[in-house]
Amino acid sequence: MSSTFLGVPRRGHDHPESPLRGTESFPKAAHHELANAQLRRNLAHATSSIRAKRALVVGEMPDWEALRDSGSAIKADVMARLPELLERLEANVTARGGVVHWAADAEEANRIVTELVRATGATEVVKVKSMATQEIGLNEYLEERGIAAVETDLAELIVQLAHDKPSHILVPAIHRNRTEVRDIFLAEMADAPADLTDEPRRLAMAAREHLRRKFLTARVAVSGANFGIADTGTLCVVESEGNGRMCLTLPQTLITVMGIEKLLPTFSDLEVFLQLLPRSSTGERMNPYTSLWTGVTPGDGPQEFHLILLDNGRTNALADQVGRAALHCIRCSACLNVCPVYERTGGHAYGSVYPGPIGAVLTPQLTGMDGHGDPNSSLPYASSLCGACYDVCPVKIDIPSLLVELRGRAVDNDRDRNIPGGWDAAMKAAAWVMSDEKRFAAAEKGLALGRVLGGRKHRIRHLPPPLSAWTGTRDLPAPPAQTFRSWWRDTHPAAGTANATQAQR
Amino acid sequence: MRIALIATCLGDALFPDVPKATVALLERLGHEVVFPPAQVCCGQMHVNTGYLKEALPVVRHHVDTFSDVDFDVAVAPSGSCVGSIRHQQAMVARRSGDTALAERATALSARTYELSELLVDVLGLSDVGAYYPHRVTYHPTCHSLRMLRVGDKPLSLLRAVDGIDLVELPRADTCCGFGGTFALKNSETSSAMLADKIANVLSTGAQVCSAGDASCLMHIGGGLSRGETGTRTVHLATILASTRENPA
Question: What ipTM does the predicted assembly reach?
């Protein structure tokens, strides 16, 4: 709500738009998205069908809660000894013929990928759907340096062709319906058949032919990783379409960018996560394609393998005892699909490639929150704290508690830096009133004056800002003639020891 | 049983009928109700808005107030206030370094119940002898469902009410969009959520939308009233307190 901060002096905030930060606060960005009727319909339809699928395949698992506990415990263990496990992964990848690179931030990761691609002489790379490369803006970085990055996941391809941004972790084009996809293909995909219809099968076939040509000519592929196994040096990608498998097996060179939190200690830990992830994300018992590779195998698959381990703010989150739980995320997006806020605003309102409830706790930790002029400072408030996200999280991240913690951080940060917030005065005054019954009773007397606003129907329809944010769409009942405490005094005059005890205090 | 009433700040100031109905119900069931008059608020609004330092004196006041009173159990006709008492008060105290307060808050919260929990779990009731001849749909409220896990306790109590025509609310477990100051800070998203909740309420044809939280009902009721829908909101406590002799 923009009026919240009216009259508050603005500090000079310099936050260039990045894959992890939009240009507007969540309420402002949501304002635009909420007005998009097509988006609202697409999202309501898509999220409700994924929710139903997930509920079905989770409901049939007798040990689902035990699996969630295991997933949570394994991830907590990983975070507790991340440095040791990362070094073990590096040693095992190296021993099997891979090359490990360390990237402190997006710029360094992008630079390493560019140098590796240039060394092969290629000017085009095929890409496996990956959040890590979205997070660092790799495609744009490569494009500026004369290297075309071709997304091969169907939904990512749609987003890329439309010069759009992903709006969902798993279903990046969830905000588009099939008619829009047909129009995008016809406008942007040179080899799309002129008589293309919006029939899903026709759309898939058009993309398939387009991508086949890319797969068969590509010499370099870039991927992310769902899991990296410290004990064996094995990387794992799970997907639905098989396009990732093409990228992971056909080109000569494979470059994988993996967030350092994606580690699992042992191969057998996959047993837990390969049950949790597909059921939580696509609502499938098992995902169609699971690719595992370990270093380089002579004569089979890519003969050159590079693993780039990406920090980009993760160690900041790791250093935070409460916030580090957000690093447990396995990017299933179950929390997006159940979130009543996400369902109405869509992913773009969050400004980050990580939208929804997990994005609201992960993004501000990766980037930091730089005062309330920073769009990312508004993200922890982009939730009604309804708790639906926590219920479905396969690794039991208590997102509502993290949101509250981060709200506390946002307020404390501003306090420490003497940046006044629009809510400070009201909250301080309310705390003063609400920590003493006499002050509260006096405030209630003041409130009773509001009865005149209620008119004959005892309902208030207009209030000045900031309460106009309520009365814009909702009535408020007029205050009652008598408060409860006053009624109690009248009706329970000799109400025993409770009163007596209180009086002695 | 000697039951301490947490009227809640919202119930005390804006919706006194809710704590009054709670008193009427518990007294009709033969229990002694005490109202520690020093009480004000559980601190939830401050906590959920990020003002955890400001929440501390509010939490301390709540804990002090109820620590001084002799009672068996405390009850609030609100899932979210009890949720805050159970899951946030000790955190606020710990965060400020006051471990003694955190321990007192935890001890107090262990005998603080939401109304349907008190009736079903503590008092072992499934039928409170109420009479309410209206078509009612029930919104289970997020914090009752997911912070307290009250499950279908409120519904089981409502099913036993004489004369009631209880109809299922579609997508009942979805948030109404209130979320405390969320309704102000993100008023447009909140209103979009409310619009869908109201459409679902109206689809039931119910005269009354009920819930166990006055705050959620203030939100849903505000939308129903603005839309001139004719559908009212009535708190669970009011329905359970209603009898043939004293109908609500």
Answer: 0.97
